[in-house]
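Lecture notes, part 5. Sequence design as translation. It can be helpful to think of inverse folding as translation between two languages: the language of shapes and the language of residues. The source text, in structure tokens, appears below.
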């Protein structure tokens, strides 16, 4: 178990996104000093997967926010975009292994249908959960919720 500085992790992911595409504005909104206990490599991989999905599955110009906050009940990290959104019929199955919401688009972006399942599993190993909200034409929010430390 390591102490994971969330602002540093999210800023690094934002830089990775910007290196791949300058046409997707990326904003990091995370207070200094916010930390999570766990395996840094697995947590970074999970958040990175969510962020790169936002980049891959949306048109150029789509904005992406990497946010983190603490409430009395939970520590929450979100990847939010204002892109094309996801049809509600796909939401219950998105984290199933090999499930692809759009077969034609997945084949052009190289998706295997495993990324969200792996991310969800990493969050579960850290006591977290993954919530997905989306409205077609208005974007998506992938919310990682962890219990607040005692």
């Amino acid at each position: 178990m390591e102490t994971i500085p969330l602002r540093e992790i999210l800023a690094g992911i934002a830089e990775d996104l910007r290196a791949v595409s300058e046409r997707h504005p990326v904003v990091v909104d995370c207070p200094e000093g916010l930390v999570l206990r766990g395996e840094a490599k697995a947590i970074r991989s999970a958040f990175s997967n969510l962020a790169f999905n936002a980049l891959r599955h949306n048109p150029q110009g789509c904005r992406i926010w990497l946010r983190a906050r603490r409430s009395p009940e939970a520590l929450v990290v979100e990847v939010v975009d204002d892109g094309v959104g996801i049809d509600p019929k796909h939401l219950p199955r998105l984290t199933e292994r090999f499930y692809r919401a759009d077969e034609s688009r997945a084949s052009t972006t190289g998706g295997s249908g495993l990324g969200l399942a792996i991310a969800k599993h990493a969050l579960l190993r850290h006591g977290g959960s993954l919530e997905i909200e989306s409205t077609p034409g208005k974007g998506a929010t992938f919310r990682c919720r962890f219990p607040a430390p005692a």
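The translated text above is only one of many valid answers, since several sequences can fold into similar shapes. The radius of gyration is 15 Å.
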